[in-house]
Amino acid sequence: MNLGRDESKFDVVIVGGGPVGATLGALLRHAPAGRAPRVLLLERALPSAEAAPTPDLRVFALSRASERILRAVGGWDALVAEPAAMVAYERMHVWPMRGRPRGEGALSFDAAELGESDLGHIVTNTALQRAALAAFQAAGGAVQQGTVQRLEFLDGCVRLHGSSGVVNAALLVGADGGRSVVREQAGLGLESEDYGQLALVANVRSEQPHEHTAWQRFLGEGTLALLPLASGESSIVWSVPRARALALLALSAEEFSAELTAASDGVLGVLQLASERLQFPLRRTSAVHYVRERCALVGDAAHSVHPLAGQGVNLGFLDAAALAETLAAGRSSGEDPGALRLLRRYERWRKSENESLSLALSLLNRFLAFGDGELGRFAERGMGWVGRSAALRRPFAERALGLSGELPQVARRA
Ligand SMILES: Cc1cc2nc3c(=O)[nH]c(=O)nc-3n(C[C@H](O)[C@H](O)[C@H](O)COP(=O)(O)OP(=O)(O)OC[C@H]3O[C@@H](n4cnc5c(N)ncnc54)[C@H](O)[C@@H]3O)c2cc1C
After folding, report:
1. Ligand 1 mean position, distance from CA 297 (Å)
2. pLDDT tier for residue 371 given thresholds of 50, 70 and 90
3. How many Å apart are CA 307 and CA 321, to the nearest integer?
4. Nearest-CA residue for atom 53 of ligand 1
5. Distances (CA, A) of 197 to 180, 230, 239, 296, 365
């Protein structure tokens, strides 16, 4: 349904121009000529077009599925054009507290062994957001800076009262992150579990080269990930209980670096803090409903998961592609994009996939990151068994590449 040419009427309004919202907009606009919906994206804080003078400390491990989605809308080329912001990683080693990085009990993946060019890419948040926004605008999407203040669900449309005026839409999408105003105002509800942990994020220099490898150690008191950066430094995501995290933040740079080197098992030699330290409280959340008549949620607005497997934004990209595919199918059969019957197809598709992965990550956190006692040792032994068998490793590799589950068309192998 097109609401007409009135400048304040759109088929779809997306609140939140983070990586997921902007990519959804680009996917919607990439419909066959003449059939693309009118899409407005409302973003509170648009990134500057220029690369920032200081490095962006927020980085993501992007899966192959996310890469395919970005390629389909032209966003990948913009990332490739920023070589300082993206690097491929070719190997991954995960090991338990009582194991060694490449030894007995570790779980290792190698792109060459899997017949892949790489296992994924590490990319900065702002470069990803800029690339997705550029792809959306290049496809004719409209971007407005502002926030949403109030929603009115009317007969036949939803009305947004925002900081820059009033707009009507056949469908409103909340892509406004973990503290989603759309989710709250649309009454979609939230289930939430506090992990009681903080993730500490920083860039570090290492004595030995990172070898384009992602490293992750289960610590018995959380997890430590070292992700390779294009600069040769590595990005750390160190998730530990809140009190321990606050104690680490209170240390001098030298003391912090020494603790970090010990926690990393010396896998890259001596590590030295090379940036400020950011902290992120960790919660597992899931919206009670992803949809209602005229409204849908995607990305962190719908769910947030433990970062230990670097899956959050990748799940959001799959949400975006699944919603775009559902709406395209609805358009072909003349359905209203805001109709609950249509939106429920998207919810059925994505909610169960996201919830089962979120539960699996919580179990990994419970039994491997914090595992002690018999169950913890059993989980460690299980990891060792998987590590020793190429056949058992394959499904885990498929999951890491984002290629398992019911994939949207655009994320499948060409
Ligand atoms: C420590 C840590 C490490 C992580 N590492 C990884 C990783 O390696 N791989 C991975 O896949 N995921 C990772 N994640 C998860 C990832 O950060 C999130 O899943 C991802 O940022 C979600 O993207 P999004 O676009 O849904 O939301 P966001 O990135 O939060 O974007 C939301 C956007 O909405 C805008 N907005 C908010 N409210 C409003 C409003 N009222 N009006 C207008 N605009 C609004 C915001 O300005 C923002 O631009 C990690 C998370 C943490 C905490």
Report:
1. 13
2. confident
3. 21
4. 280
5. 21, 28, 6, 29, 11
Q: Kindly indicate the confidence band of residue 3, based on its pLDDT and cuts at 50, 70 and 90.
A: very low
Contact 155, 168 (CB under 8 A): no
Residue that wins the pLDDT comparison between 405 and 21? 21
Could you identify the atom of ligand 1 that is nearest to the CA of residue 301?
26
Residue 292 Cα to ligand 1 midpoint, Å, equals 22
| Residue from 300, 317, 318 to probe ligand 1 pocket by mutation (most atoms less than 8 Å from CB) | 300
What SS3 class is residue 55?
coil
CA atoms of 46 and 353, how far apart (whole Å): 31
Residue 310: pLDDT band with limits 50, 70, 90: confident
Report which secondary-structure segment, H or E, holds 328.
helix 312-332
Residue 258 amino acid letter: A
| Of the candidates 199, 141, 192, 410, the residue with the CA atom closest to the CA atom of residue 302 | 192
DSSP-based three-state secondary structure for 92:
strand
For 9-192+283-411, CATH gives 3.50.50.60
**Contact (CB, 8 A) for 235 and 229:** yes
Radius of gyration of the chain (CA): 21
Q: Looking at the predicted structure, is the pLDDT value of residue 129 above 80?
A: yes
